[in-house]
């Protein structure tokens, strides 16, 4: 559902914030590695439209060991999603 919404150019700005929170909450509720990784990937894609910094904090608190390597790799991503060149987490 979230990925479908991303096809609409109007899906940006403040609309993103509750979506990032919902994705992070759902991933932690489901409690499996696949859901967690999928949520991080979605947050990375959404952060170019509005920062996902608040939602990513919950994932870091939930499983720092799993989240940190993924976030660190995305920080250097040349797509501009995260880190110094993008809108950031």
Main features:
89 residues; mainly alpha
Question: Would you give an account of this structure?
Answer:
- This protein is mainly α.
- It has one domain (12-75).
- It has 5 helices and no strands.
- It has helices spanning 2-5, 16-30, 33-46, 53-62, 64-75.
- The chain is globular and about 35 Å long.
Per-chain topology:
Layout: H1 2-5, H2 16-30, H3 33-46, H4 53-62, H5 64-75
Helix pairs in contact: 2-3, 2-4, 3-5, 4-5
Short description:
The chain is mainly alpha-helical and 89 residues long. The protein is 62% helix and 0% strand. It has helices at 2-5, 16-30, 33-46, 53-62, 64-75.
Number of extended strands: 0
Whole-number radius of gyration? 12 Å
Biggest pleated sheet: none
Structural category:
mainly alpha
Instruction: Round the mean pLDDT to the nearest integer and report it.
Output: 86
The helix/strand order is HHHHH
Query: Which segments are poorly predicted (pLDDT under 50) over 5 or more consecutive residues?
Result: none
What's the structural domain tally? 1
Query: Can you give the helix content as a percent range?
Result: 55-70%
What fraction strand? under 5%
How many angstroms does the end-to-end distance come to?
22 Å
Assembly state: single chain
Global shape: globular
Number of helices: 5
């Amino acid at each position: 559902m979230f990925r479908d919404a991303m096809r609409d150019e109007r899906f940006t700005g403040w609309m993103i914030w509750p979506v990032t929170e919902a994705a992070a909450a759902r991933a932690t509720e489901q409690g499996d590695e696949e859901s967690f990784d999928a949520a991080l990937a979605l947050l990375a894609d959404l952060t170019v439209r509005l920062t996902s910094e608040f939602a990513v904090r919950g994932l870091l608190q939930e499983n720092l060991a799993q989240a940190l390597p993924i976030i660190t790799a995305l920080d250097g991503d040349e797509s501009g999603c995260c880190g110094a060149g993008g809108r950031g987490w």
